[in-house]
Amino acid sequence: MTIRNAGPDAVSPAPDALGATPDDAPDRTEARLLEAASRLVATRGTRGLSVTELARAAGVSRPTVYRRWESADDVLRALLMHRAQVAITTVGPQAADRATIVDKVVRFGELLRADPVFGHLLTEEPEVFTRYAFERIGRSQRVILEWLAAAIAAAQPGGTVRAGSPTDLAVMVLLVSQSVVLSHRTVTTVIGDSALRTELAHALDGYLRP
Questions:
Q1: Who contacts 183 (Cβ-Cβ below 8 Å, separation ≥6)?
Q2: Per-residue confidence at 137, pLDDT binned at 50, 70, 90?
């Protein structure tokens, strides 16, 4: 699958529909672009995500998009990182013990499946999810790994999580939970949601237990 991309505008960058110049309210403009990208992917898939379509959906000029990302592929990577961060924020404050870490990781997976962007990819374009999730560690995975490693490091002094490199442990927790998220539609034909949640929690708890 190739994500369509359009070349930069030939004209010089001008203020967009928000009245924003390159240095004017970048957070507000980027948030608007990411929201528009979310709608495009959720309703039309990654094939509907191009710089031209994103600019049109967000009501901005193409140079406004290009000031932030070089291609539609870059937009998608930024979008996945953003949606992962939203899920992390929704899960709540950092965990400080094994039981809370396990609960938050399981909850995080449920939020990803329910997320309009990740949910679409998992249901309609699993090959795209696989590419960005498994072929290499991208920005969204790094955000998740940093969150997991920080939680593990915070829990280790209390003795509820075994010793070891927090990053190494975080990688395995990510791999296990990520594979369950990707395989959810397949395995729930033989195991119910509740049972799957319980077994994942057991697997994570056993792995992290001292």
A1: none
A2: low
Predicted local distance difference test score (pLDDT) of residue 121: 92
Q: DSSP characters for 48-88?
A: G--HHHHHHHHT--HHHHHTT-SSHHHHHHHHHHHHHHHHH
DSSP-based helix, strand, coil % in the chain, nearest 5: 70, 0, 30
Closest by CA position to 60, among listed 100, 89, 31: 31
Mean pLDDT of the 101-110 span: 96
Residue 2: pLDDT band (50, 70, 90) is very low
pTM for the predicted model, two decimal places:
0.80
Compute how many other C-beta atoms are within 10 angstroms of the C-beta atom of residue 162. Answer: 14
Report pLDDT digits (tens) over 47-60.
999 999 999 999 99
For the chain, the first-to-last Cα distance in angstroms comes to 44
- Residues listed for the chain: 210
Please give the backbone phi and psi of residue 178, each rounded to the nearest 5 degrees, phi first: -65, -40
Are the C-beta atoms of residues 102 and 205 closer than 8 Å to each other?
A: yes
User: What DSSP string describes 148-183?
Assistant: HHHHHHHHGGGTSS-SS-HHHHHHHHHHHHHHHHHH
